[in-house]
């Protein structure tokens, strides 16, 4: 078969179309079997598509185009590969240079990863000025950070410019009161986030209940055992694992909060798969951590670290993005004092953590300064009663304020 057609593969039941992000190989270039040709963007993750055969690549799809699953995006002329192999050999003095080029450069050479591209763009550094240390010369995130740091350092240490003299040209005045508008197409992930948020607002009876938690006990626990924890497990004990374990325990005690509506049925889960909101350059993702009720703190922290790294590098798989029975989001890392998080459908509840602030509170009849955090629980009132939501949040609050009871599972 001289020409092979390449089509968008089936990437999962919930994915019916993709956005064609960019080509990794030029139109008309020679490709080898399994060589990455392009990147596509789904509503959950980015993915590379590879060549099914060696030959000459013929573009069909355009960058930024939305394509349904099964759509043709490229063709490969397999006969062109044989034609090149049988062409006239290059002159003897050109052979070494050709071999050197073939062995040291390919499609990845000088191409930044998505995370690296964002860093270089923000620093106004051309990719051609950065040497890639990744596989096949690809520019990694670390290369971009190093290049950005090296260009900023001289700018901070350079000698101040001499005062402008009469003979010096006048500086160009900056443009004030700009009226420039820019229109950029929303990424598929951002479009999906928008649809899901609007759907959650329109299709659920969502309410939010609030409480506050004294973080003194947790902070004392971390301060006392942090060094020993790091020494044994190689990772720090964070607030997220403690909140996740408290939520998992409360979810097992109150199955309505851990359930979901499916038509006219209610699906109860006898496990706690807790989705953790992670901010990435392309948007918010909520990969679930499965069976949190059976994990210890170190296992949870290590899993969070793994998923966070994958999310920020755009390497989360579809399976890692699917599922979840409850969600935790921590706006406190950005300074949020209080918010009303939106339910992550088809889940029925989401817990919002916020910034820790020293506030005066009454303890045993005395006013004391304590590190306090506001908690918000948004829930679907169709399945979770008000009393259940309040009881759940109070249970989480009590477990956090007395972490010994959480460790002893009482």
Would you give an account of this structure?
The structure is a single chain. The protein has 410 residues and is of the alpha+beta class. It folds into three domains: 1-87, OB fold (Dihydrolipoamide Acetyltransferase, E2P); 106-151, Irregular (Dihydrolipoamide Transferase); 189-407, Chloramphenicol acetyltransferase-like domain (Chloramphenicol Acetyltransferase, 2-Layer Sandwich). It is built from eleven helices and 19 strands.
Summary, kept brief:
This protein has 410 residues and is an alpha+beta fold. It has helices at 78-85, 95-104, 114-122, 141-157, 188-203, 216-233, 239-253, 297-312, 318-321, 386-401, 403-407; strands spanning 3-7, 17-23, 30-31, 36-41, 46-50, 55-59, 66-68, 72-77, 206-214, 260-262, 265-267, 274-276, 278-280, 283-285, 288-289, 326-330, 349-353, 356-363, 366-380.
Low-confidence stretches: 83-105, 154-166
Rounded to the nearest angstrom, the radius of gyration is 27 Å
CATH class of the largest domain, anyone?
Answer: Alpha Beta
Number of domains as seen in the coordinates:
3
CATH architecture of the largest domain: 2-Layer Sandwich
Structural shape: globular
Oligomer: single chain
Question: Approximately what portion of the residues adopt beta-strand conformation?
Answer: 15-25%
Calculate the terminal CA-CA distance, rounded to whole Å: 68 Å
The H-and-E topology, N to C, reads as EEEEEEEEHHHHHEHHEEEEEEHHEEEEHH
CATH H-level superfamily title of the largest domain: Chloramphenicol acetyltransferase-like domain
Helix content: 25-40%
Alpha-beta content class: alpha+beta
Biggest pleated sheet: 7 strands, mixed
């Amino acid at each position: 078969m001289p020409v092979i057609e390449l089509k968008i593969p089936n990437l999962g039941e919930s994915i019916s179309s993709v956005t064609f992000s960019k080509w990794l190989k030029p139109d008309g270039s020679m490709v080898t079997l399994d060589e990455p040709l392009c990147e596509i963007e789904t509503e959950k993750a980015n993915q590379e598509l590879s060549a099914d055969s060696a030959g000459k690549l013929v573009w069909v799809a355009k960058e930024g185009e939305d394509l349904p699953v099964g759509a043709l995006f490229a063709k490969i002329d397999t006969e062109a590969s044989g034609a090149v192999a049988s062409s006239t050999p290059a002159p003897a003095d050109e052979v070494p240079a050709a071999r050197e080029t073939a062995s040291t450069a390919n499609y990845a050479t000088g191409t930044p990863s998505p995370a690296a591209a964002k860093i270089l763009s923000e620093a106004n550094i051309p990719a051609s000025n950065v040497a890639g240390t990744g596989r096949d010369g690809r520019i990694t995130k670390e290369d971009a950070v190093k290049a950005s740091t090296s260009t900023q350092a001289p700018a901070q240490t350079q000698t101040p410019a001499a005062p402008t003299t009469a003979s010096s040209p006048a500086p160009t005045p900056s443009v004030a009161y700009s009226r420039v508008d820019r229109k950029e197409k929303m990424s598929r992930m951002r479009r999906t986030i928008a649809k899901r948020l609007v759907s959650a607002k329109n299709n659920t009876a969502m309410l939010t209940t609030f409480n506050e938690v004294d973080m003194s006990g947790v902070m004392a626990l971390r301060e006392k055992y942090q060094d020993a924890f790091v020494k044994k497990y190689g990772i720090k004990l964070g607030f997220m694992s403690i909140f996740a374990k408290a939520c998992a325990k409360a979810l097992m005690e109150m199955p309505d909060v851990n359930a979901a509506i499916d038509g006219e049925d209610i699906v109860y889960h006898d496990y706690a798969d807790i989705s953790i909101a992670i901010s990435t350059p392309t948007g918010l993702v909520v990969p679930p951590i499965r069976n949190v009720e059976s994990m210890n703190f170190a296992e949870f922290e290590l899993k969070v670290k793994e998923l966070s790294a994958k999310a920020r590098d755009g390497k989360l798989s579809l399976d890692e993005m699917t599922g979840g029975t409850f969600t935790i989001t921590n706006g406190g890392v950005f300074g949020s004092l209080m918010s009303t998080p939106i339910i992550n459908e088809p889940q029925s509840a989401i817990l919002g953590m916020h910034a820790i602030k020293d506030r005066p509170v009454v303890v045993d009849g005395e006013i004391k300064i304590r590190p306090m955090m506001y908690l918000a629980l948004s829930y679907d009132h169709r399945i979770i009663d008000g009393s259940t939501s309040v009881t759940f949040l109070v249970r989480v609050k009590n477990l956090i304020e007395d972490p010994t009871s959480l460790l002893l599972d009482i």
